[in-house]
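Bench log, entry 3. Co-assembly request; chain sequences pasted below exactly as received.
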Amino acid sequence: MSVNNTTPLVYVVDDEFAIRDSLTLLIESTGQKVKSFDSAEAFLNSYDPEQSGCLLLDVRMPLMSGHDLQNELLNRGIRIPIIFISGHADIPDSAKAFRAGAVDFLEKPFNNDMLLERINEAIKKDIAFREEYVKKRRIQDRINHLTTREKEVLSLIVKSHSNKESAKILNISNRTVDVHRASIMEKMQAENVAELITMVMYCEEPVIGSHEERFH
Amino acid sequence: MSESLNSHLSTESTDNRAETRLDEYDETIRKRAEAMLAHSGADVAKMSIDEVQKLLFEFQVHQIELKMQNEELNRAHQELTESRDNYAQLYDSSPLGYLTLNESGLIQKANIAAATLLDYSRKELINKRFGEFIHPSDQDNYYLFIHKLISKKDHRVPNAKIINTDDSPTHPECQSFKLCTDSSQPCDKNKMLTFIECCARVVYNDKNALQIYLILNNVTERKQAQETIASLNEKLEAKIRKQTNELTATNLNLIKKVEELRRSKHQLVEREAKLNSIFNASVEGIITIDMSDIIVSANAAVETIFGYKPEELIGCNISKLMKSSSPDYYDPPNAVELDGQIREIEGIHKNGSIVPLDLSVAEFSIDNEHYFTNIVRDISLRKYREQQDKEHLDELAHVTRLGLMGEMASGIAHEVNQPLSAISSYAQASLNLINSEDESLDMVKLCEILYKTQQQALRAGQIIHRMREFVKSHSKHRSTTDINALIHDAVSLCIGELKHNDIKLIFELEYNLPLIDADHIQIEQVIINLVRNSIDALRNLPAKQQRQLTIHSHLTLSNGIQVRVKDNGPGLDEYQKQKILTPFYTTKADGMGMGLSISRSLVEAHEGTLHFNSQLGKGTTFYFTLPIRRKSDERK
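Structure output for the full assembly:
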């Protein structure tokens, strides 16, 4: 995935034609690009992960519901911001949606201005996420290039252990720890230990609506 | 002379004795005459011749006189002998026994008949005591009789009977005799006795000795005849007794029969009394009519029902009480077919009002005359209650519809929200189009959007309309409807919920079904209840499993329309199966538990039935059947 400059796309998934149609017309009238699907399956089949944008998703649909699609997207590692639109604004539904990382939950009929605003926010979020994602990916790539011993030393550094402590824990000499540390600094392209820790922390920070949280 | 007369009863020996005595008499007379002559003193020798001659002459005359006297005597003797012989003849040949007894009861004389009777020779009998021949049991009577005879000493024949009983005729020495003074009653049961009757006379002979003359008459035969008669009498009596017994037995039987008859009569009376009391105490009117529809009898209850007194009705035609224009017109030939069945008819009260009645007819016949007993029950109250029940059901249905609507509100709101949401978006899109800086306004697109907006508004309006209809307390009741239209209308109010619960709805409707006559709101209510019930069942399915609800309609073989609402939910267990149709049973936290029970009541109010079948793990099907509109209903 990379940050590209193509116009973001608003996906509309709703089994109800009138909703799809009216939303398409409305969003298009603000100059956004819209692509609508009458079912979750149809959306999954034509979704391009490279395309930035957001998803307007109906909760209740036959076969695959909005929630099902949300989970499926998470499973596939797709982090597209989701705005749920529902006839029912019931608390369990919205809680479920938010827990799985939905950016918003709008009840029909919705305030059009608010909807459009939320769409814009979501698109911004997507773009930001995509940038963040790329950054994290870069750091992660660097971490991935460390040796196993280096990874162990790194985790101890992050936990603010001194070299001495680390040597003791790992049962190696201080000198060896110093060698690993220098290698880590180089591989991670960090100027100092503070930057290194920030980098690792940033990388480990969960993205919005991460897997881990979903399963709690 | 008197001696010979006195001895006229003597036998032949007596006769010879008489001859001898007559000779002796002649000699004696000679001697006496000679003596007398000697004594007279007249000596013939001393007499003159004249005197002698005179004497001689006298002698001669005297001699002639004597000779004449003698001749006369001889003649008299002869006559006497003749007479005596006659008597002897009579004496001996008499069938009656003659006995002569002396004072001490010894037999002095007996005739042949007496000897035969006593079975002794005459000689042997002489000086025998007659009493010896008398049966011991009669001896006392005999001696008393003899004593009376002697003491009275008169010559009267006593009015007495002696019955001499011979023990054994072949053994005369047997001294079994019987005597009764004034009756001929048998003294012994022994039939060999000889019975005699006895007449007696007491006479004093010339020696002044008492003699008893007994005349014995053998009455054995008479006695026997009497006995025969007596035995015959006895037999007759026995026969009579037997017949009497038989008659008595017959009589007893008759009495018993009479008793039975009396009892059965009593029972009949009792039964009649019972029936009468039933007849009169019955709340149901009982009217009996004959073949020509004329009222023969009516009970007291008839007055309460029709206002006529029973006596006013007797003789009237039944049509006075039962509406002739009514399609259920009272018709005896029909009545026979309908024997025992209960029909609802309309009766006419005296005041002209219509009385709804239950009528049952029973036929009976007496002496080839057919009668019909009409039992009528005033069902005004029941009708009123039925009407009330119906109204209550309607009210209840309405109240539960309101409740149902409450439960369905969010689902319906969702359904309304859809078009509203679309309208909102369309409108905003239109505004955006109009407000766009682009000079060339796409009018075609705008019109299209506005048209779509209108359609959505109409759609929302429709849902609201249906909802309002559904909760209305409607006054309009039955109308002709197509069941499939009702199904669609009902389901339209459930779409939100179906969607909300991710339930796939499948229609399996048979088209061109006959119309039904129904209160469409109530039938919609039933369908909605069933659909929502299925939705609740399907909610319990795991999320991953496809939830399906099928609505099916078809025409049954028995000309009914069946609607089936089928889900693939978890099904019902035995306890739920038992409870599910009862009021206030619910598995839902917020449910009233009235849905299914009221659905059943509503279907039944439409003369239909509601049932279900369910299999654990496979699902449940509720189905109801409604009668199709009958041709006959069209007239109404």
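Chain A is about 55% helix and 10% strand. The two ends of chain A are 27 Å apart (CA to CA).
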